[in-house]
Specification:
The chain is mainly alpha-helical and 203 residues long. Helices cover 76% and strands 0% of the residues.
Length: 203
Amino acid sequence: ADLYVMTWLLGYVDPSDPCFVAAILTITFNPLFWNVVARWEQKTRQLSRAFRSPYLACYSLGAAILLLNVLRSHCFTQAMLSQPKMESLDNPTAYRMGLALLGVGSTFVLSSFFALGFTGTFLGDYFGILKEARVTTFPFNILDNPMYWGSTANYLGWAVMHASPTGLLLTAVVALVYMVAILYEEPFTAQIYQQKASLSHKR
């Protein structure tokens, strides 16, 4: 069934379109960038030394990630606009469904940011900036990695609002890339908080 859906979506999409290629590149590059840089910082502390503060280094990486995400969203939108709409999605009901997805996604993204703070959102763990314990309040008490899944819901809602098969396909790529990022990030986050708890217990 999944293969059928993908084949059906590809019938609407021109993968050679420069806007589509740019969207794929930005979607895949962004998590790769922040994970590679954060792991490098965790091992070497080069950014913290360069900025003379782990906080300034984290803020700088966060600003870079935000700019890259703006570029990703721009490329995503341009890819949708450059390719045909799906007639069956181009109706008021689907548009309202897209708005609802956008609302849910934004709620998860914003509530995650407020729960974690700037440094918690933008990989402060890798800079040695740790919270007392892992956050378990809303929205983390509803699902794991709400920032990633909220972002995915935003892209899905945006695609449905534009009745865009290209947007739906790109959203699937966003979800896949985030799943890979989670597999890479989760063990490290769990490990550092286990180490922190162990050190606190010894004291």
